[in-house]
Specification:
two-stranded antiparallel sheet, mainly alpha
């Protein structure tokens, strides 16, 4: 069902609930905004940061079609069970009145200057319709429970309330829409595939912009390759190729069987071991046993201090400190360090004479 354009206000924050309720995701234009690197002077209102782990990013407005997002790993079907829940939620948010401009400014000042929770609540509750409206724009492509997007958008709205400066001369609903979209976009990227495909700032940028830029070049008559896309997007060709592979490949289970034979090997069986191989483990065990045997022959040649250092500092899992040894023999820590270094050199010389192919790396 389409909206009646006569009833659509100029700003989304003032949209009546009736208009929001009749929005049909299949008839809405998909306006997906891209994430670009932050320029501190790009927005007078302040820094609109993405919630990723690799640094700030600015959400800038742009018109995108469905091709700007990659294909999901599995077919996404509309959530029929969430429709009733959405209607109930819309009825609840319709109870909160809209704010006049002077009321909005007064509440924003109270939040900024006094951290007033009541003022923050009124700002948030009066703009819950805006969150629903923005979430419905993304629902056409997401095609899962729209309430998930509404929930993430509400988090972005609360973040906007805490960051908003009313003296900048920018309407709160305009400023909040950036935060709402940033949180919704991050949720979509994190849940687009079972395996997260955007983990760095560059990958998040390419997730939203790669297909859009490729379609734009094709429309202009170009045959875009990695070099052309790299120049247009400001990233390396290797990063373009890597993201292309990430977007083109579907999620694969490591427990999936390789071949048609029942009980055959899985992909997990072909992964390299994270720890040392069996050959290295056996070799280390043999070297450790050899050193223990050869060290027994040097014990009679050591004095009391050297013997104590060897047994209580070098050959134990809970070594004593240099200070404890110094207090035991009434010497300084530096003197104990010198005794330890001399003992290690004596052990190296002894083992080098007794073991063929001895390596200094065995004694650290």
């Amino acid at each position: 069902m389409k909206k009646n354009n006569k009833n659509v206000p100029d700003h989304p924050s003032s949209a009546p609930v009736a208009d929001v309720e009749v929005l049909d995701a299949a008839d809405e234009d998909s306006s997906l905004d891209s994430l670009e690197e932050l320029d501190e002077d790009s927005l007078d209102q302040g820094e609109i940061q993405d919630v990723g782990d690799d640094g700030p990013m600015l959400l800038t407005e742009g018109s995108h079609d469905e091709s700007s997002l990659p294909a999901p790993s599995m077919p996404r079907l509309p959530s029929t069970g969430g429709r009733d829940s959405l209607q109930l939620y819309l009825r609840e948010v319709s109870r909160f009145p809209m704010l006049k401009p002077e009321e909005e400014h007064e509440l924003a000042v109270r939040v900024r200057d006094h951290n007033d929770p009541d003022a923050a609540f009124r700002l948030v509750s009066s703009h819950l319709r805006l969150v629903v409206r923005i979430a419905m724009d993304f629902q056409r492509r997401w095609m899962q429970n729209v309430l998930d997007l509404v929930q993430e958008g509400n988090v972005g709205l609360m973040r906007a309330v805490n960051k908003f400066d009313p003296d900048k001369g920018i309407k709160f609903s305009y400023y909040a829409s950036f935060w709402i979209k940033a949180y919704i976009l991050k949720f979509i990227m994190d849940n687009w595939r079972m395996v997260k495909i955007g983990t760095t700032q560059v990958q998040r940028k390419l997730f939203y912009n790669l297909n859009r830029e490729r379609q734009k070049l094709i429309a202009q008559g170009f045959d875009p390759d990695a070099a052309m896309l790299s120049e247009r997007l400001g990233v390396s060709e290797e990063q373009i190729t890597e993201m292309d592979q990430r977007l083109a490949a579907n999620d694969l289970s490591l427990n999936a069987q390789v071949g048609e034979d029942a009980g055959g090997a899985t992909r997990m069986d072909f992964l390299p071991a994270l720890g040392p191989g069996i050959e290295d483990s056996l070799g280390d065990s043999e070297v450790a046993e050899l050193l223990r045997e050869k060290l027994k022959t040097i014990l009679p040649k050591l004095n009391e201090k050297e013997l104590y250092i060897l047994q209580n500092r070098l050959l134990t899992d809970d070594p004593v400190t240099l200070r404890e040894i110094g207090e035991r023999y009434n010497v300084t820590r530096e003197r104990v360090r010198q005794l330890e270094a001399r003992l290690l050199e004596k052990i190296r010389q002894h083992l080098a004479l007794d073991i063929k192919d001895f390596s200094d790396a065995w004694i650290q």
